[in-house]
## 1
Amino acid sequence: MISEKRSINMYRRVYSVPGFVTALRIFDALSVFFVAGVFVYGIAVLLYSGMYLYALKLSIMAAVPFVILSVLRVLIDSQRPYEVFDIQEFSELREKKKSGRSFPSRHVFSAFLIGVLWIPYALPFGIAAILLGVLMAAERVARGIHFIQDVLVGAVIGILSGVIGILIL
C-alpha cells in the first residue's frame, strides 16, 4: 500500500497543474457518457433487430450486479481520499462531492461490466469500454476520488459479473 506521505505528494503534483485537473474532469464526464452510450446503443440495436428477449436478458445481467454493488457500497461506506487526507488541493472536492461509499468504484465496475458483456457481440465497443475503464480508474485515483483498491476491486467485480452474465445468456 502506498504511504500517506507518497499519496499526498502524488495528489499535490496532480493538482499543481490546473489544466491537467480540468482535462481529467472533462475526460471523466465524456468517458461515463461513452460507456453508458455503448450500453444504450447496444440495447437499441438488439431491439431494432427484433432480439427483444436478448435485450431484456442483457439489461438484467447489467442491472442486477449494479444494484448489488450499490447496496454493498452503502453497507461498507468507505471514505474517499479527499475525506481522509486533509490537504488544500481537495477543498473543492470536499465541498462538491459526496462522502463515503468509495469502495468499490461503481464507475469502473460499470465500464468493465459493460465492456465484458459486449465483447462477444460487439468486440470494438467492448474493448473501448474496457480501455476507458482502465483510464477512468487511473483518473479517479489521480484526482483523489477513489483509492487504488476501490478501482481494482470495482474492475474485478465488473469482469466477474460480465463473465457470469455471458455464461448465463
## 2
Amino acid sequence: MPPAPTALKKNVLLTGAPGIGKTTAMIRIASALGAEGGGFFTEEIREGKERKGFRIVTIDGRTGLLAHVSFGSGPRVGRYRVNISDLEGVAVRAIDDAVGASKIVLVDEIGLMELFSESFRTAIIKALDSPTGVVATIREKPEPFCDSIKAREDCDLIEITLANRETVPGIVLEHLRRFISSGGQ
C-alpha cells in the first residue's frame, strides 16, 4: 500500500496495468465525492464475453460512445475506432463543466484514444492548471503527452497494484479532504 502523499499537491494521477482496477477506483472516488466531483469515466461495452467498445459516462449521467469495433471511420487504436465527436461533446464538456463549477475534476482516462483530440488535451491542461483538484487515471506506458503530465510538480502519481487497489480510493479521498481543508478548491 502506498503511503498517503505528504505534500498537498492538488492533482492525483492513478496509473497501473490494464485491468488492474483504475476505473473501479475512479467510480468509488466519484461516488464518495458526490456533488463535489464532476467529470467522466469510461466503461466497457460487451457482447457476451467479447469487448466491443467503450462508453463515456459523465458524473451527472450523460453518455456517449468513445470507441467501437463497428465504427467505419475515426482514428484507430487496436481494433477500435475512436468517436472524436462524443469524446469532445461529452467528455471534454464534462471536464470543462467541472472546472467551471470548481468541482474536483475526475477523468478516466488520459490514454491513447482520448489523446487523438486536441480539445481533450487542452481541457486536461486547463483542469490541471486550474485551482480545482484533479483525479485522473493515466496511461502507464510511455507516451510524450502523458509523460509530461506525470512529470508535473503539482501531480502525485499513485500506481494501482493487486496489493493496493482496495485501499487506493480511500487514500485519494483522504488526500482530497486534506487538500480542500488546506484552502484548495
